[in-house]
Fold:
Amino acid sequence: MDKVLEAIKNKDNVELKALFSQKAIAQAEEFGQSIDDLIDYFQGDFVSYNDWGGPGSFDGLNDDGTGRNWKRIDSTYDVETSEQKYRFAIQEFVQDIADKNNVGVWSLYIIKMEDTDSQFAYWGDGKNTPGINFNK
Structure:
């Protein structure tokens, strides 16, 4: 999350893209435009974040019959800026022995705090859509 916020704060499209897996970038709709949209959507100067909703870790075997595994971390964060409060949900593959192009952030969801229930962790729409997703 630190790297994601740093890239957004610095309006660094290249660094933000580098955090995502090659597979997510290839499967996401209009990935380049979604980076620009994220930087525009995130208003104000960064104040703090809280990771109270995770991380949760998951692992499993790939479907290729080789027994090679993958490991994933799902996290949700509350982020506060000088102008707004947001919720982020991030799904990141930290290992995939069968497909190194799958390693990196798979999906990032962001929503304004006012548009979600602050009593519960935010996990997006539950579809883990690759790329950057807004208000789902």
